[in-house]
Design a protein that fits this description.
- The protein is an all-alpha fold and 496 residues long.
- The protein is built from 25 helices and no strands.
- Among the domains are: 116 residues, Tetratricopeptide repeat domain (Serine Threonine Protein Phosphatase 5, Tetratricopeptide repeat, Alpha Horseshoe); 169 residues, Hypothetical protein af1432 (Orthogonal Bundle), CATH 1.10.3210.
- Helix 5 packs parallel to helix 7, helix 6 packs antiparallel against helix 7 and helix 8 runs antiparallel to helix 9.
- The relative contact order is 0.05.
- InterPro entries: TPR-like_helical_dom_sf (IPR011990), TPR_rpt (IPR019734).
- Keywords: TPR repeat.
Length: 496
């Protein structure tokens, strides 16, 4: 009898999920679940586990907890049960339920650790360390991270090394063991050249030197991290962004720009509050009160330029405020960025144009934050509200003016709601204006980027904000093919 593991539909869904095509994958997993054609209990466990992993990525944590609980109950082997229980602990961690997450992870190790494959134990101890770090058991976290490294090495898996060494460095900083902290962070730098990992390492080094009172070195590494954030902010972890805000706030304070310092620290306070990290929230609140009451002053004023830190604050502000436009708007933006990036790669845009496209995809709706919710909730309820709504791309460009993005970013933002057949807004445009230097190659590249953003926006709006299924969304886009570039639409279909 054929098992679910050999099912072509399931294999397709697993491939979609691995490639980050969450809505298409979730639809297929749920269809398989509803069909009842999943054979043994282990196959049922696999379905629930995969659904839970997607729900985690969609920030639907309560649903993910439920799915992982069902996956654990249906697991048919010790390793599968451990895998699903680790995922359940991840969901509990995301809910700041650290005690239960810790107990689940420790229970796996106590009951079955010696019987698990090295790779599974490496993952187990890495997750255990994140809980220990969150609850300030830094020495225990170091021990767990060292064990995680050991098991990954025994499994001949090295691609986690950069993250593990960075995490070790952070723990050593908390323990004021700066020698080991620097050694670990340098190993992390040697292990990866990914922008987000580099940003994490530079931020950790900046924080370490700040703790030691070496402000020049701290500022130097902060300066290295800010440009990386410009390139990687579309994928940056929200907690890392909060830590960057906190770090740059301290540096701005010591440079002497106390107004910027308070703005950055307040942004960090908001971020960690939204993430439910209440210990860190209390620490930030206490620091702000110290500054407000004048109980602390800079150790010494430094000659420093805070321009990059101001830019960081402006980008973070634009990024974060969009999240409050509507329910699931953050997920909508993430999805738009995901498909803009994928399609740019498929259609071989230049690296420079990819960066411009992703920047526009991340920030294109910032103008909506200046429009009342009565307009954004129901823009078509009157002619007046519709006129306000359709001009939000122009408002976005105006509000982002201080960041001085290149002309192509502004053009992409202005035209992300236009359509090839003239049915879009605000200008019912059908073609792309010639690039400032008039070169045909640049015009074609900008045109491709514009068409990519238009389709990515339409897909994301449908599956996320309107909650239309992936299949129905693709059918609707194909039925309205004249509104979208044929090559871009074909490329999107090929992804699935």
């Amino acid at each position: 009898m054929r098992t679910l593991l050999h099912d072509a539909q399931l294999q397709h869904a697993l491939k979609l999920s691995a490639n980050g095509h969450l809505y298409a994958a979730l639809e297929k997993f749920q269809d398989k679940l509803r069909s009842g054609e999943y054979g043994a209990s282990g196959s049922l466990s696999l379905l629930y586990d995969e659904i839970g992993k997607i729900q985690i990525q969609q920030h639907d944590i309560n649903a993910a907890e439920h799915s992982f609980t069902l996956a654990v109950a249906a697991a048919d082997t010790l390793d599968n049960q451990a895998k699903c229980q680790i995922h359940l602990a991840m969901a509990l961690h995301a809910q700041s339920n650290f005690d239960r997450a810790y107990r689940l992870l420790q229970e796996i190790e106590n009951r079955a650790g010696a019987q698990l494959p090295n790779l599974r134990r490496g993952i187990l101890f890495n997750n255990l360390a994140t809980v220990q770090w969150a609850t300030q058991f830094y020495r225990d976290a170091v021990t767990s991270l060292r064990k995680s490294l050991q098991y990954f090495e025994e499994a001949d898996v090295v691609h986690y090394h950069s993250t593990l060494y960075n995490n070790l460095g952070i723990c050593y900083i908390e323990l004021r063991d700066y020698e080991n902290a620097e050694l670990c962070i340098q190993k992390a730098l040697e292990a990866s050249d990914a922008k987000e990992e580099l940003m994490f390492s530079y931020t950790a080094l900046s924080r370490m030197y700040l703790h030691q009172g070496d402000y020049e070195q701290s500022i130097e590494y902060a300066r290295r991290s800010v440009p990386l954030f410009d390139e990687a902010y579309q994928t940056a972890d929200p907690l890392l962004t909060a830590h960057l805000c906190r770090l740059y706030a301290e540096l701005s304070f010591h440079i002497g720009d106390q107004r910027l310092a308070k703005q950055l620290m307040e942004k960090a306070e908001l971020q960690v509050g939204l993430l439910g990290h209440w210990r860190e929230f209390a620490e930030i609140r206490a620091r702000l009160e110290e500054w407000t009451d004048g109980r602390v002053s800079p150790d010494r004023h430094l000659a420093g330029d805070t321009t990059l830190m101001k830019r960081f604050l402006l980008i973070t502000e634009a990024w974060n405020t969009q999240e409050f436009i509507a329910t699931r708007f953050s997920e909508f933006i993430d999805t738009r960025v995901k498909y803009a990036t994928e399609l740019a790669h498929q259609l071989q845009l230049s690296e420079e144009m990819k960066v411009n496209l992703v920047t526009a995809a991340r920030l294109a709706d910032y103008g909506l934050t200046a429009i009342g919710s009565d307009v954004t909730d129901r823009p078509d309820r009157s002619h007046t509200t519709w006129l306000q709504y359709i001009h939000h791309p122009e408002l976005t460009v105006e509000m982002l003016g201080e960041l001085q993005f290149c002309p192509d970013v502004n053009t992409l933002i202005l035209r992300h709601h236009e359509r090839c057949d003239g049915s879009g807004f605000p200008n019912q445009a059908t073609d792309v204006p010639v690039s400032p230097n008039g070169e045909e190659a640049e015009r074609d590249s900008l045109k491709a980027a514009e068409r990519i953003l238009q389709l990515s926006d339409a897909y994301a709006e449908s599956v996320v904000l309107k909650r239309v299924s992936h299949t129905e969304t693709m059918q609707h886009l194909r039925a309205n093919a004249g509104a979208f570039d044929e090559d871009v639409l074909n490329a999107l279909e090929c992804l699935f």
